[in-house]
Amino acid sequence: MAWVNAIIQGILTGGLYALFACGLSLMFGVMRVVNLAHGDLATVAGYIGVGVIAAIHVPFLWSIPIVVVIMALLGYVLQRTLIQAAINRGDLTTLIVTFGLSMVIENGLLQFFTANSRGIGVNQSIITDSFSIGSQIQIAWLDVIIFVLAVVVLLGLQYYLSSTKYGRLIRAVADDREAAQLSGADYRHVFGIAAAIAFGTVALAGTAYGMTTTIDPTTGTQTILLFAFAAVVIGGLGSLWGTLVGGIVLGVAQEIGAQINLSWELLAGYVIFLVVLIVRPQGLTSRRAQS
Amino acid sequence: MNSLHDAAFLHVRNLTVHHGQLRALSDVSLQVAKGEVYAIIGANGAGKTTLMRTIAGLHSPTDGSVVFDGRDVTRMRPEQRAKAGIVMVPEGRRLFPSLTLEENLKVGATYARKGPWTIERAYETFPFMRERRAQKTAQLSGGEQQQVAIGRALVANPRVLLLDELSLGLAPLIVQRIYDTLPRILESGITVLLVEQDVSQARRVASHLQCLLEGHTTLEGESKDFTPDQIEAAYFGTNPGGRPPGPPGRGTEQETLSGSPDGTLSLWRGSTRLSRGS
């Protein structure tokens, strides 16, 4: 029964990881940008959420769309300025620039919010309650909500990319930037939209993370970025549903590891990550053998 | 310089383009009149594709200008030029592989100008597309892909259509079938500027020919005025008469043979065939 519990908890945690990973995957798939500041942006979103609630006294649920919109706007602006400038200078530059951005964010947060960790406290019972299956399995409603949110976000992204005008342009630009320009599409604007979406998902992920546990200025690079990377690689680069598969595999591996020995939680996750890299480097869901 | 540039629909003036250190085009000019088919011919590496890409806005010229319908577009980005009506079918087709056939056309139509071409009309012009519209373009044959690329450009309702090496890698029969749709394109009022390695094909479809050799214009004028020998001389740079072959074009600012071949051009002799055997 304890093993079943570990698997269920792992699957639910996988939803949160997928939420972290889909934005990373989207930015890589469309712009070929490996955003090393991705985790820190999630942390920033968490802090913005805390700030919004404190500043304008909105109910917690209302703060979520506000944070998402703020982050999406930030994503568009950052993409059109800093990240686009880096893209124009080559692949390696985007790595260095996003790494620099990560450092700036982390130290900025330390400067203004100190190293104390904080959580997004919510007193609504639906979020703090849990329910039991049998005597040994206890499931927090919050974990279920986050998992459902992740699936809804992925379904929404899937619909957006496959069925809307801008979704189609995003895929076209990801395929062939020049050919899209010849069809009249300004790829920089399309990149901006993709970044706005990625930052929007990262805002949700950061808020969700802040609710399940606490965030501090270094959470972004020390936890979130690594888990997001692992989920993306396990699932398959550039594949949307792959991030959910990757997130779940990572989450289950961690829970099972923790079940065997509490200190094996992180280790088990990275062992799976390495095994997938060796056995199936294109990821679990990727159809192509290359890239 | 003179009043003639006002008459030309698409006027390329003294274009010089570099790829890094390499000078790909030297002082190339051309004037395309509204409604005509204008063909650029030349061997591999002559600068034909560079010329097309520069007109479409994908390369910035070092010198010279591109004037379209009386408007200087030299500094405009490719997507702005597409919206203004200069639409290119790029070399190698460049379809979006993860999109279906119909989605490829929809992308082409996203920023379309007003005009007669719709996705429905593209299906009428290229009937095979209708039943295969849900397929990924990688599943199509080369000829079909080329037709999708043309369709994707047409649904944008171009005023001038740039066709870069339609016949590349295609069987002659397929190439012929694609060229057979050209009259339907022209009757909708579109002007066509095309690059073609197959000289006989170019002569057949185009009213105007211009030959490039190592980035220079070696021949320019009405197709019907040139003998095959004159074209061959311009194509390979053999230049048997020592003087410009053919009539002096219609008033381009430069001499037809201004980029006179230097000694290195003899290297081309015999190394390239006029039309690729396939």
CATH top level label of chain A: Mainly Alpha
Shape of chain B: globular
Number of strands of chain A: 2
Distance between the termini of chain A: 40 Å
Q: Widest sheet of chain A: strand order?
A: 1-2
Helix content of chain A: over 70%
Ends apart, CA distance between termini of chain B? 45 Å
- CATH topology annotation of chain A: ABC transporter involved in vitamin B12 uptake, BtuC
Structural class of chain A: mainly alpha
CATH A-level architecture of chain A: Orthogonal Bundle
Rounded mean pLDDT of chain B is 85
Strand content of chain A: under 5%
CA radius of gyration of chain B: 18 Å
Trace the largest sheet of chain B across and list its strands: 6-7-8-3-9-10
Count, helices of chain A: 12
Overall 3D form of chain A: globular
Q: Tell me the quaternary state.
A: heterodimer
What share of the residues of chain B does DSSP label as strand, in percent?
15-25%
Order of helices and strands of chain A: HHHHHEEHHHHHHH
Can you put this structure into words, describing what you see?
The complex is a heterodimer of chains A (291) and B (278). With 291 residues, chain A is mostly helical. Chain A has a single domain, classed as ABC transporter involved in vitamin B12 uptake, BtuC, CATH 1.10.3470. In chain A, 77% of the residues lie in helices and 3% in strands. Chain A is built from twelve helices and two strands, in the order αααααββααααααα. In chain A, strands 1-2 form a two-stranded antiparallel sheet. In chain A, a hairpin with a 3-residue loop joins strand 1 (130-133) and strand 2. In chain A, helix 1 (2-31) packs antiparallel against helix 11 and helix 6 (141-163) packs antiparallel against helix 9 (187-212). The model of chain A has no long low-confidence stretch (mean pLDDT 92). Chain B is α/β, with parallel strands linked by helices and 278 residues long. In chain B, the strands form two sheets. Chain B has a six-stranded mixed β-sheet, sandwiched between helices. A four-stranded antiparallel β-sheet of chain B has the order 2-1-4-5, with helices on one face. The termini of chain B are far apart.
